Amino acid sequence: MWDYLRLEVKRTLRDMRFVLGTVAMPVLMYLLFTNLGTDDGTWKTASMVGMAAYGALGAAMNTAGGVAEDRAIGWLRQLRITPMTPRQGVTARALTGAVTVLPAIAAVMLAGGLVNGVRMDAWKWPVIAVLLWLGSLPFTMLGLGNGYRMTSQAMGGVNMLSYLGLAVLGGLWFPVQLFPEWLQHVSAFTPTNRFAQIGRSVADGHAPSLVALGVLTGWLLVFGSYAVVSYRKAARTI
After folding, report:
1. What's the domain count of the chain?
2. Structural domain of residue 183, as residue ranges?
3. 131 φ, ψ to 5°?
4. Nearest Cα to 147, choosing from 228, 79, 63, 221?
5. Is the alpha carbon torsion for 142, 146, 148, 152 positive or negative?
6. Among positive and negative, which fits the CA dihedral 40, 44, 47, 51?
7. Which of 52, 96, 170, 184 is the S-S candidate for 8 at Cβ 3.0 to 4.6 Å?
């Protein structure tokens, strides 16, 4: 399983589409959004966390592309005849997503500290990074579910809609306070809204709320179940 994990991590990090889309793009968007208009330090900090979450979301859901491609070329069929169990295969894929979110988180936070001059207590930086890393797991499960269930062509469209829709609705690009009141209530139940909130709470000097952790845990169970069901369906057809 660990050999498979190393292979998948290396393959993902060598993909220029991954590097540009989930590492470079969030950094560029962060610097653009925070350097237009007034020089607001509070907004630069909040946006840093939101864009780090956005990068992590994209990296986590990127697992869908690899899974769909593996199904298309018959790689999943080959894995079934190795000593690795199906559970180990899914676990390795999930761990791949967990590892590859780290560059996206680190890149945005480095841009915040080195370029935008964001200043926080030293302990907050690693705590925010770890919380965003752990909080990305539900989105890895969503990506795996899409990859196991759909063809490469269908998965691309669905994944992009899920990615952008969750990012915008969850307030990763813009503050949810700019939304209509009814949409703010909807946003509060999205996993992306609570995902960014756990990092922003630490940046503000507070512990993540139990409500945010509860919403994220609930979505982890939903997306995890979706991934398991999708894998079982794929296993019957490959």
Report:
1. 1
2. 2-235
3. -65, -40
4. 63
5. negative
6. positive
7. 96
